[in-house]
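cron nightly-structures :: item 1 of 1
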Amino acid sequence: MEIVYDLLVVLHLLGMAGILSGLMTYAYARTPKAFTIIAHSAATQLVTGVAMVGIASADLVSSEVDNIKIGVKLLIALIVLVLGYTAVRKQAAGRNLLTAVTVLTIANVAIAVIW
């Protein structure tokens, strides 16, 4: 089960990289496809994160689960997902929406690493 968990971690990190690359794509190319990248990457992060918590909670790997940390990260991930799909529906995003996605994504990474 360690291999499955490790693969989920890799996919989770790729999801985070996808969100940030979508933000960079929009910043430089101003293409609406960037919103789709952000939304799908946020969904990837959410699904893989929930799967990793499920595996860790079932004591199938040697990893402890901090439920408060996971709850905060889940809330942030849901907000990023909603913002991403909002931008996809509108095919446009204001500066505030993109700033919020950027700050929340970096905050989620910081919580994962520091907390």
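cron nightly-structures :: done
The CA atoms of residues 16 and 45 lie 7 Å apart.
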